[in-house]
Structures are given as structure tokens and as C-alpha cells.
Amino acid sequence: MTTAHQSYDAVIIGSGPNGLTAANVLTDAGWSVLLLEAQDRIGGAVASDTTVHDGFIHDTFSSFYPLAAASPVLNKMQLGQYGLRWSHAPSVVGSPSRAGGWALIHHEPAETAAGLDNLHRGDGDAWMQMYQAWNSIREPFINALLTPLPPVKALLRLLPKLRR
Predict the structure, then answer these.
(1) Is the CA virtual torsion 10, 15, 17, 23 positive or negative?
(2) Residues 45-85 pLDDT 10s
(3) What percent of the chain has a predicted confidence (pLDDT) above 90?
(4) How far apart are CA 163 and CA 69, in angstroms?
(5) What secondary structure letter does DSSP report for 40?
(6) Better pLDDT: 1 or 84
(7) Conformational region of residue 98, where left means phi above 0, alpha means psi within -120 to 50, and beta covers everything else
(8) pTM score, two decimals?
(9) How far is Cα of residue 39 from the mean position of the Cα atoms in its chain?
């Protein structure tokens, strides 16, 4: 039996976020791309399911979504025009205390500071200081994480800010 062989410029193994992004970037550049996936669905670990509780839908392995939302490559694709819509939980992350309360990080820094100060006086001010320090390094730090290795230019922009 003879089969026809297609020629591809690139073969990508895995349809997780990185594989799908690579396939899109290369296809947009005019390459012929073959994307292979062994699982019965695409997306890799990016998925939602109801295994925690019936009727409760949760994201599995969702800790890297904030990096995807900040990704220059994904932002350049303008996926919103194709229906991508980021949704955000009321609190970004939370950590339970032994006393039964929660330390919550909210989208608004002042709200986070107030909640932390309610748990332990002074923690709100400490949070705001840490948040301000984060804002001074945020852009070069994220660029260092999201640029091709080695991220020399991004690290050179980050280093002077870290010294402060």
C-alpha cells in the first residue's frame, strides 16, 4: 500500500499552550505546520472539569494563566477578536489560617492591605511596601520571564532595579 507524504516546514509535538502558540506563530508566518497530540483533546493542562464537586467547574493546573495574559506573543495575536475572554476570580489567591480565616490577595492592592491588616495589624502596610517594590520591577521581570532564552536584554533592564 502506498501513502502520499505531505511535506511540512515544522512538526510540533503537543497541543498545550506552548505548542498551540508555536503553531499559530509559524502558521501566521506562512509555514506549513503539523501539530501532533496524543490526548483526546487539545490544550494540555489548560482545562476545566468537575472532579472536585458536581456542578462546580474549576480550572486544572491554572497557575500559569497570569503569564499567558501578560504574554507579548499572545497579546500580539489579538485573540480577543476571535472570542478569547479572560475571566478573573474575585480574589487572586488565598491562604487559609489555622484560626479559620483567610489571607486573600485581591485585584485592588488597598483591599488586600485592609484585609491583611484585619488579620494582623501592620501587615497591610508591609503588603503595600512589597506591592510598591513589585511595581518597580514588574515590567522588566515579566519581560525576563517571557522572552526567549537567554533573556539578556530583559535581565539588563531588571538588574539596576533590583539593586534598589
Answers:
(1) positive
(2) 777 788 878 888 777 776 666 777 778 888 888 888 989 88
(3) 35
(4) 28
(5) S
(6) 84
(7) alpha
(8) 0.60
(9) 22
Cβ neighbourhood burial of 16 (10 Å; 0-12, 13-18, 19+): middle
Separation of CA 128 from chain center: 23
All cell numbers assigned to 81: 477578536
Question: Minimal CA–CA distance to 127: which of 146, 110, 147, 150?
Answer: 110
Task: State the amino acid at position 3 in one-letter form.
Answer: T
CA torsion 109-136-125-110 (nearest 10°) is -10
Considering only CA atoms, which of 23, 45, 27 is closest in space to residue 35?
Answer: 23
Residue 163 and residue 126: Cα distance in Å, rounded?
20
pLDDT confidence bin for 38, thresholds 50/70/90: very high
| Cα 75 from Cα 78, distance rounded (Å) | 5
Go through 124-146 and write b for each residue having 16 or more CB atoms within 10 A of its CB, e for each that does not. Answer: beebbeeeeeeeebeebbbbbeb
Report how far residue 31's alpha carbon sits from residue 37's, in angstroms, rounded to the nearest whole number: 19
Look at the block and give the residue holding cell 493546573.
Answer: 61
Give the phi and the psi of residue 47 in degrees, each rounded to 5. Answer: -160, 165
Chain centroid to CA 93: how far?
Answer: 14
